Amino acid sequence: MDIAKRFAQNPLLSPKDLKASTQGLQIACLLNPGVFTFNNKTWLLVRVAERPEQKEGIISFPILTATGTRIIEIPTNDPELDASDARVINYKGTDYLTTLSHLRLVCSDDGIHFYEPEGYPLLVGEGEQQAFGIEDCRVSLLDDTYYLTFTAVSDNGVGVGLRTTTDWKNFEKHGMIFPAHNKDCAIFEEKINGKYYALHRPSSVDIGGNYIWIAESPDGIHWGNHQCIIKTRKGLWDSARVGAGAAPIKTAKGWLEIYHGANGQHQYCLGAFLLDINDPTKVIGRTEEAIMVPTATYELSGFFGHVVFTNGHIVKGDKLIIYYGAADEFVCGAQFSIQEILSLLK
Ligand code: MAN
Question: Is there a contact between 256 and 314 (Cβ–Cβ < 8 Å)?
């Protein structure tokens, strides 16, 4: 049952609304923002996916190298090219992304109209492990420090990087906290019994699958005691992969987490689960049906259609405002009632 109240102003941001970071590149997608409040404004840390203008007969995409951005060009009729997925290609046995992502700050007074403020840096991939970019950042606030957990991509694999900041101008880099293959990491915004907790999503290609795990840490940087808590479900909307959204929301019933699930046809929907307030490794509820399903035009067609994906929200009392990527191309907003989500947990 789709219980999302989509903003009438959707899409809030489209690729044409921002300028490309680098000469020779265009913005192909604006998607999957991390969300936070800072200086009384709503801020999005948007994933900006770029590539050169595509020419007939050639697929071209940027990667980061020690000396700057390099463009790779491959003829589309090359028999060693597999370009059947709009997001990832395989060439001569190596996987590449079709776009290179960085993260960009935009802010707003009303949560609907966003603009790029002056004087804030772009967050770009740095070093070998981020050569194919950084993506889908979750922002968690703990004791005046913002923890940024994002997907770091390179030909070594996909892992979770961490940077921290207090002012959004200076950042401390903590390298990769969950190595490949891992993504969708959200740190709880409160310590529980003296420990930090994080949700994350390792993937197994052989035994196991794309499941949500929880880890604990003494300092928010070094993680251990991993436990698998949420699996895919055969025959349901989340049969192929599941991954956490933003930081869990503290409610009287427990920690409420909004997550995404995809099925075998790559349709991405949202659902929710609930964790015990004192022991978040215990799952005490989960929605059977999706609470948001791609149905609006801007969710059905775009860079990669049939996708709603969230990794950021704002909570105001019972009101949950999620910001989400639609069709991997647009940034949109929708409102939920937390009580209504809780009432659907089984
Ligand atoms: C998937 C998709 C892409 C993303 C890559 C690497 O293929 O989520 O959008 O770029 O993984 O994270």
Answer: no
